[in-house]
Design brief:
The chain has 691 residues and is α/β, with parallel strands linked by helices. The chain contains 23 helices and 26 strands. The strands form seven sheets. Strands 16, 17, 18, 21, 22, 23, 24, 25 and 26 form a nine-stranded mixed beta sheet that branches. Strand 17 and strand 18 form a beta hairpin. The longest helix has 42 residues. The protein is elongated, with a radius of gyration of 41 Å.
Length: 691
């Protein structure tokens, strides 16, 4: 009995021992840890430059996938899509009739929209002066229209950049009707064409705000009134894939095919679905962090991006990246801590710690993203610094462990199987005496008639032949299915599965090993073929190291071990090669084909045991179907004590398989059964008096 205070004392010893080990590792490994810390810090610093731009972009993109779609209803979109081209009979290579825009604007005015933003540049006089007058009148009547102002860039004009050269304002009558309300349609995509950053004003002309900013100012000048805030770029908080913001086709709005209140109290952005300005010009499509959700329509138009910016400003949901200095300090500090700390840990502990740190880093960024609309380049930590620290730690510590492991393996390899050597080397506690209860599938094998076959053989020849037999059996059958060979007993092999390594399918593995025995090319000794008989059983046994630290005997003990041995011996009576118990068949049954051979009361066991012959794999089912069916019929008749009918039934089995051992066995048993008074509850079990 333990004395009062003994457990706390032991706990203190464990804690003290752990601390001492850690201090020892710091003293011995601090140089390597410092090198790793500097390496990780340098990697983080370097990747905060354009070299690591892609990691920064992923840091921005991925939180959207976790957060999911958000529905913002303060804005709406009207698309000039292909269907509208066809419905309204508008050309694909020229601007649309401005009369249609006037009609659209009148309908939106009737729906009491809060504002209309045209992501279309109405530059110069149109082909129809009357249509121009209609549009100017519609703009004036609405009173809350923002017109697009474009920038023409040098070169081919196939890409937008911050180096805008020429400002292209709208037609003067439209400009006057809109009271000079303009919005730049310019966006600034990254190298992968995704628009992440939004500039409220163009760097070259701060007199013109973006369409999104102008729309927000139209509703609430207090939001955008701070001049210092006006020039502060921000990152877009996308709400979902293309189409998330309420939208309708241009022709459907014009033809009255949408509810009359669909756009009520919304700011409506009008633009092309697939192409900016009019359809004959270049495409104005950009991917978003949600493009993966809509692979058929992964891109968003410029008007949808401007609408997103407007919603961000209006709802105070603009995203900001940490200041450069703060982000640099954070990344470098994380690199130092990760590099130094992981190097001090063993590979497994370092792996788990690295995963935990990666998760925590992502979680912290997501918390900032959701609650403070702030993000940082966390992927640099997760995909660069932590992997570098982990690889360095594993490599460094693996060298240390290798030296220790080699010493253990060299000793164990003298008397243990390769699998046990590896297992014991990982867990030195397995070398200590002791055992535990463990569910196993046990195999016993034996060579039929070995005594007769080996009689008169030269010792060297016998040893050479048996070594070749064991080598083939162990390597091709047992080790190939991850079995553990416990020992050789003369010509027999004792092996099991599910220890020392747990295996969820251990019963099937053992059956597969037995079938591989069957499928081995024929081996001969003394000019006679070697026939291997196998018995399998699944049950709980005592597994462990029985012996001492100087003499290891890793084995299993218990009555279930004896039952597996009895199964192997039963082959001799039934004329079979592989027998398994009902316990094994129940677990491995769906993956194997078996033939039920009946109930047997074996010597030394009180209860009758259900015995099955292992016939083959599932794909081999057809080959033994008729045999199994006829034999099952014969057993059913036998259980009813109709011995005459049973005799006829077993003979019918022999008609298709003349040398079927189990049928011949039962025919021999019938004479004794006829002379025996059987109990009323007899179910066909056979009692064997010998082992």
């Amino acid at each position: 009995m333990s004395q009062p205070g003994e457990e706390p004392t032991q706990d203190r010893f464990k804690i003290r021992g752990g601390l001492e080990e850690f201090v020892s590792r710091v003293k011995s490994n601090w140089r390597a840890a410092t090198v790793c810390a500097l390496l990780c810090a340098a990697a983080g610093w370097g990747l905060l430059t354009p070299v690591g731009l892609r990691l920064a972009q992923w840091s921005y993109d991925l939180p959207f996938r976790v957060r999911g779609v958000v529905h913002a209803t303060e804005a709406g979109l009207v698309y000039m899509d292909e269907q509208s081209h066809q419905d309204l009979n508008q050309p694909f290579d020229k601007p649309w009739s401005r009369s249609l825009h006037a009609q659209l604007l009148d309908r939106l005015t009737a729906q009491h929209v809060r504002g209309v933003v045209f992501d279309i540049v109405f530059s110069g006089q149109g082909a129809d002066p009357k249509a121009d007058e209609e549009l100017a009148k519609a703009i004036k009547n609405n009173g809350k229209v923002i017109l697009a102002a474009d920038y023409r860039t040098g070169g081919s004009g196939t890409a937008q950049s911050e180096n805008a050269l020429t400002f292209d304002p709208p037609y003067d009558p439209f400009y006057d009707a809109a009271d000079g309300r303009l919005g730049s349609d310019f966006v600034y995509p990254d190298g992968d064409q995704m628009v992440r950053r939004h500039l409220p004003t163009d760097p070259k002309n701060d007199q013109v705000s973006s369409e999104g900013w102008a729309a927000a100012a139209l509703l609430d000048s207090a939001v955008t009134g701070n001049s210092s805030n006006k020039f502060l770029p921000f990152y877009l908080d996308y709400y979902g894939p293309s189409g998330t913001i309420p939208n309708a086709s241009f022709s459907k709005v014009l033809n009255g095919e949408i509810p009359t209140n669909f756009f009520t109290d919304k700011v409506v952005f009008v633009g092309a679905r697939l192409r900016t300005k009019y359809s004959g010009e270049r495409k104005d499509e950009y991917p978003s962090p949600f493009s993966y959700l809509t692979p058929d329509t992964p891109f968003s138009g410029g008007e949808e991006i401007q609408a997103t910016a407007f919603l961000n400003i209006l709802r105070n949901e603009r995203l900001f990246r940490l200041p450069v200095g703060v982000e640099m300090l954070l990344i470098v500090l994380c690199g130092v801590l990760a590099g130094f700390g992981l190097t001090l840990l063993r590979p497994m502990a370092a792996s788990i710690t690295a995963l935990v740190l990666a998760f925590c880093t992502a979680a912290i960024n997501y918390f900032m993203f959701i609650n403070f609309q702030t993000w940082f380049a966390w992927e640099i930590i997760v995909l660069a610094q932590l992997p570098i620290a982990w690889v360095f730690s594993v490599a460094f510590n693996s060298v240390q462990l290798y030296v220790e492991k080699q010493k253990v393996e060299q000793s164990l390899a003298l008397y243990l199987s390769p699998k046990l050597v590896k297992q014991f080397a990982k867990d030195p506690t397995l070398l200590k005496p002791g055992a535990r209860k463990q569910l196993l599938t046990i195999l016993f094998s034996d060579i039929a008639g070995f005594t007769t076959i080996s009689e008169g053989m030269d010792s060297d020849h016998l040893a050479l032949s048996m070594n070749a037999y064991f080598q083939t059996a162990v390597q091709n059958c047992i080790f190939s299915t991850d079995g553990t060979v416990v020992k050789y007993i003369g010509d027999a092999i004792f092996a099991f599965w599910n220890a020392p390594e747990l295996q969820g399918d251990h019963s099937y593995r053992a059956c597969e090993a037995a079938l591989r025995f069957r499928d081995q090319p024929a081996q001969f000794m003394n000019e006679k073929e070697l026939i291997t008989r196998i018995g399998l059983h699944t049950g709980v046994a005592n597994v462990g190291n029985f012996g001492s630290m100087t003499r290891v005997d890793y084995t299993a003990l218990g009555e279930n071990i004896n039952l597996a041995s009895r199964m192997e011996g039963l082959n001799k009576y039934l004329g079979t090669r592989v027998l398994i118990t009902e316990d094994t068949q129940k677990v491995a049954g769906p993956k194997i084909i078996t033939r039920y051979l009946g109930l047997f009361r074996l010597k030394g066991f009180e209860k009758a045991v259900g015995v099955y012959e292992l016939s083959g794999r599932v794909e081999e089912e057809a080959g033994t179907r008729e045999l199994r069916e006829r034999f099952a019929q014969a057993l059913a008749v036998l259980a009813k004590k109709d011995f005459t009918a049973a005799e006829a039934a077993f003979h019918r089995v022999l008609e298709i398989t003349p040398k079927d051992g189990p049928s011949e066995f039962y025919l021999e048993q019938l004479e004794e059964l006829r002379a025996t008074t059987l109990p009323d509850d007899w179910k066909g079990e056979i009692t064997l008096k010998d082992k």
